[in-house]
């Protein structure tokens, strides 16, 4: 019965081992100090138990030396714990370059995931072993949280902004996906699985999907459908700035501020176009809030990315 | 320091302890008020920087004349309140009644002017909620500005109302000759409260009314 | 300085017996009893909600309750326990009763404001009860937006108003304590002679007074947003949901120190008395209370490491969170050192103190996992967090409250409870508590998220253990409730100082007269001067 006892989920990502090492360190420190206190208190309780009714212990006011010792040693240990944890956290927060990008939309009460090649999944994500995956996530309604215990990753999925997480799966298998931020009635049902496959099996799975429109192709279609092409002429001579080579570029606004044209900027420009107006242009763009959902917005962003990125700006 | 007129509550040893406790109590209470308004102002500050244009737009629709008048009214009332405290400390009943009444009048004037302003806003459809309408693409953020306007000035006005009630009680007590050179603590701590409410307005006025003026 | 039993003599309990004399009292001791009755009621209610949660979790398929109902149960459990039980508990009951007496005063600085604070608490409680009766609320006690401001269709506004109102009760209690401790100490009672219980109440009062107003404005704005559909926190209307979290946790993190600091103060009193020794490192223990109060305001972002806040913010909040752990560790070491070469006896209050040290140590150490950025990513919003805070809140705060209640019960009521039953209850609570919550650490490690009404079947064994523990815990509370009530009528009459303790409260009769002292005491020695003062009392109490 005990051979199968687990205290941690299996490790299925490159970061899992690092997180577990840190966990183990903390467990050791905690067991040590808890044990120390338990042992001391027990010894003192027994050794110094009251033996006669009129015992009068000698008063001991304190000891500066002891106070310093049991302040400085825990402080030093705390700094080690902080430093190690910070280092792991920074790694967890920094996706490596050339990651495969997956767009995730959380909504009550399901997960919608979109692959770069257009594959769409609900509550499931198929990925290959050994490939870095970067999740760019937003919510359509309330705050959710994308939690895969086997990968030791978790990130809140927030409406109105993009959050990111990354992982690289190390072994094939199926791993639970949970929503970890209470989001209403069926919060506990908002579960799914990450299906990690050997690269060849993953390729086969991709091919089996049939005619799938890539996000960029879907975005191009929406770009036409909603008339964006009417103002955003590619040569820049329309009423709106050209979007060719825009992604990643520094943009100057009417307020003289400069911003980088990243996903969040493009998202905002579509749903709240008056927030940041490009210098030299009038604030006449209508809002598409409520007309295009998060999936559509992600697709339009993918389309704009496909129009060329400004590599120089990105490298700065 | 106990005198027949100086009534010392049963929990205090003497009038001096009562005096000190009352003052510390009022200061501590005012610190909680700083945290309360401070939270609101911090939130406002975050959104002013996020939606600068919309907030400036909303600010332009506030009545600067009425706002400035109100500022003068409140500053004047702080002066009359200080004079009232002085009269209490020196046991001058006539002075107390005069200056407390003036302070009360000025406080009521402030509230009256505020009521006029609020009525105007209602007529202009600038009260957040189903009646709000503002012809601009950033109407939503302008509504946010007005939400803060009403929340902040409304909370302030509520505190003014409490102040007005306090003043009324003080006037009645002063009429009865309760405040002498030996016992004037209620007037002093009420003065502290009144000055604090005034200072809150000094923060509110520029943040709400003057935000757009130099843009 | 009478050591005669209080029976037959006029004391604060029998001085007047009409309902009006209780409901319009300004006696801090009577107000403490009013609070004791009300918080016990809310504790019972909160326990029922907890029971529903735990029984539902016996099965992975959530057979007992529907999802919507379950969500209301854990929400109302949290709201009731935090705002209506834990936060008032020690300050409003033991603090109200003891602060004036321990410093040699006749009452608090503002007795009528004290009574007002109880009425405000009751009104706030009524609003929240009404919300419960009308169908409850399901946002979690944390009210995260935009779920609470826009999406939930439960009684959020009513609950928010109830919490808003009750906050003022907290503020007024804190204000009263601060002024009292500053201005009404008896002659000779210098700051460095204050009992550590007073230092703890003082530090707690600082937090109550500075933090609660921010909660007030936060819930007021949520209510405003819900009513008028303005976009303060809802991104669909231009607001920022992360801003809500910052504002909410700015109060709610210090709030946890409101819940634990008073308990730590109680433990200092218990260990000193039942080791018959001064607290080792008195100055350090007192300063650590203040340090916790200050640092506690700087760490709120550790609830938001995965919220989308910046990495830099995470680094700063993590560092500060490790710093705030140090003063608590210092206390535990000093309490342990106090027992060294002491004269230790094992009455019920001391058993609670032992329980506190063990459980608070575990609870505090497990907090390090959550302060640590790398591990918090995995453990955040799992049962690990639930276990951590229950170790502190129940294993720490409630053990301290019960220990204090058992310690000062004879003083407050003039009666003793059965000693053996009391010890048994303390042990039952300790066992039941660990069985309930230790499995939850493992559940968290394994990745079971919190606030789930159904869960994957592999988590069932641990959940069943936890529910079994909860029933034992319930039994322990029930036992204590019964014998404490029983003692009011049938318990042995208590004398002024049944424990042989040192402190001003033990020099007046049990129960005390309304004005506490015949004449104002003059203090000439430090707190816990067991070597200097010979307490008048038998060191053992009569057994039942």
Provide an overview of this structure:
The complex is a heterotrimer of chains A (316), B (215) and C (544). By secondary structure, chain A is α+β, with helices and mostly antiparallel strands. Chain A contains eight helices and twelve strands. Chain A has two domains: 9-41 and 63-212, Cupredoxins -  blue copper proteins (Immunoglobulin-like); 215-315, Cytochrome Bc1 Complex, Chain D, domain 2, CATH 1.10.760. Chain A has helices at residues 16-47, 64-93, 199-207, 215-225, 228-231, 263-271, 294-306, 311-315; strands spanning 100-107, 110-114, 120-122, 124-128, 132-139, 144-148, 153-157, 163-168, 173-179, 192-197, 250-252, 258-260. The model of chain A is unreliable at 311-316 (pLDDT under 50). Helix content of chain B is 76%, strand content 0%. Chain B has six helices and no strands. With 544 residues, chain C is mostly helical. In chain C, 67% of the residues are buried. In chain C, helix 3 packs across helix 8 (241-275), helix 4 (111-133) packs antiparallel against helix 6 (156-183) and helix 13 (383-413) runs antiparallel to helix 14. The longest helix of chain C has 37 residues, at 67-103. Chains in contact: A-B, A-C, B-C.
In DSSP terms (H or I, runs of 4 or more residues), the helix count of chain C works out at 15
As for the number of domains of chain B, it is: 1
The residue-averaged pLDDT of chain C reads 94
Q: What percent strand of chain B?
A: under 5%
Through-space gap between termini of chain C: 28 Å
CATH class of chain B: Mainly Alpha
Which structural class fits the helix and strand makeup of chain B? mainly alpha
Topology:
The complex is a heterotrimer of chains A (316), B (215) and C (544).
Chain A: H1 16-47, H2 64-93, E1 100-107, E2 110-114, E3 120-122, E4 124-128, E5 132-139, E6 144-148, E7 153-157, E8 163-168, E9 173-179, E10 192-197, H3 199-207, H4 215-225, H5 228-231, E11 250-252, E12 258-260, H6 263-271, H7 294-306, H8 311-315
Parallel strand pairs in A: 1-5, 4-10
Antiparallel strand pairs in A: 1-2, 2-3, 5-8, 6-7, 6-9, 9-10, 11-12
Helix pairs in contact in A: 1-2, 4-7
Chain B: H1 15-50, H2 52-60, H3 64-89, H4 93-123, H5 139-175, H6 185-209
Helix pairs in contact in B: 1-2, 1-5, 1-6, 2-5, 3-4, 3-6, 4-5, 5-6
Chain C: H1 19-23, H2 28-56, H3 67-103, H4 111-133, H5 147-151, H6 156-183, H7 196-228, H8 241-275, H9 282-295, H10 311-339, H11 348-371, H12 373-379, H13 383-413, H14 419-446, H15 460-490
Helix pairs in contact in C: 2-3, 2-4, 2-15, 3-4, 3-6, 3-7, 3-8, 3-13, 4-6, 6-7, 7-8, 7-9, 8-10, 8-11, 8-13, 9-10, 10-11, 11-13, 11-14, 13-14, 14-15
